[in-house]
Amino acid sequence: MPTRRSFLNIIELLAIGQLASGCKKSDADLKISLLKGSVPPQSLKLFNQYFSSNTSFDFHSRAQLIELFNLLEYWKSQQKKYTNDSWPRVSMLPSQKSDISDLVTLGDSWLTQAIQKDLIQPITISSWHNWHKLPSYWQNLVIRDQNGIPNKNGFVWGAPYRWGTTLIAYRADKLDGEIKDWSDLWDPKLENRISLVDQPREVIGLTLKKLNKSYNTKNLKNIPQLRSELQAFNKQVKYYNSQYYLQPLLMGEVWASVGWSNDIIPILSRNRNIKAVIPSSGTSLWSDIWVAPKNNNISTLSEIAQRWINFCWEPEMVNLISLFTNASSPMINNLNNKQLFPEVINNPLLCLQPSIFNKCDFIEPLSIEEQKEYIKLWLEIKNTK
């Protein structure tokens, strides 16, 4: 029988084929540029059923978030190109408007840059009747000032629609016991046996969690044991690589890997020797967010785009996102056991216990000086290898 992932790929191809044949890009009612695999294809039919509509979609996927960020930059540059004070105040070229998507997927870690570069615009939330159901920590993630800094009195810059964690994956066939927390990665048996993402905030962050600190700790010099802990951890690591950190684990070359849940969860069903855990002291969170590209011709989102955002928080979508995208919906804790699919509620990597979730952190933006402090420390440690 086909796996859930292969079945999903088949459905996705069929859905894309139907969409492509049903409308041209410029004629679509709703144009979305999204991260590949972050939206279940089944949701398109469900959306039309939900609203008794016949909405035509243009879903254009990208493999990585940086590609979507670059797309926002491109649209901004094109608008600037066709907007000049010396020219008459006219609309952009006819094709320009249709090229800009209504909504784009952006990771929360890119949100500050997008705001500072004027790539996206605030969104009016008056038609989001599900917004008030969204837990405050998700609302606070996207309410920011015009510098992209979280601010409860700021604007709403996006809508979180799925989220995940940083996990530890390990080879149960190589290790005697289980890995339960970050501190287990310092075990001498794992020396030169770990691979992980090459991200200063993640590496320093997990070390801070070991020390009962937050991922967002500032003034690192005030934590005297941090450097020695990082030096000891560096000896444990064989590979730093944000793209290929799981291959050594699959091959048995390393016995533990640290990376993002949407990468790790799919391999668990294919390799029974690999287990994954959310560290008991908490971990970092990430979120994919719908944002509205800056569009000189359109200052507000269309009604159909507003409906799509609100629809992504409906109970049916909570299950679909959690079941088919290797991530969770931000509304997952709002549903009771009877409303959630068994495959979702029984998966501790998707449905986190409150005792663990409350110890987790979104990686918040730092000032330029604080960023330099993190990078400087990280490079000093990494280069001693």
Rg value = 22 Å
- Counting copies of identical and different chains, the oligomeric state is single chain
The coarse silhouette is globular
Task: Report the CATH C-level class of the largest domain.
Answer: Alpha Beta
Q: How much of the polypeptide forms β-strand, as a percent range?
A: 15-25%
What is the assigned CATH homologous superfamily of the largest domain? Periplasmic binding protein-like II
Helix content percent band: 25-40%
- CATH-defined architecture of the largest domain: 3-Layer(aba) Sandwich
Structural class comes to: alpha/beta
Q: Count the strands?
A: 13
Task: Indicate the CATH topology of the largest domain.
Answer: D-Maltodextrin-Binding Protein, domain 2
Output the number of helix runs: 15
Through-space gap between termini: 46 Å
Spell out the helices and strands N to C: HEHEHHEHEHEEEEHHEHEHEEHHHHEH
Largest sheet: 11 strands, mixed
Poorly predicted residue ranges = 1-25, 85-97
Number of domains: 2
Subcellular location: Periplasm
Pfam families: SBP_bac_6
GO biological process, one term: polyamine transport
InterPro entries: Sperm_putr-bd
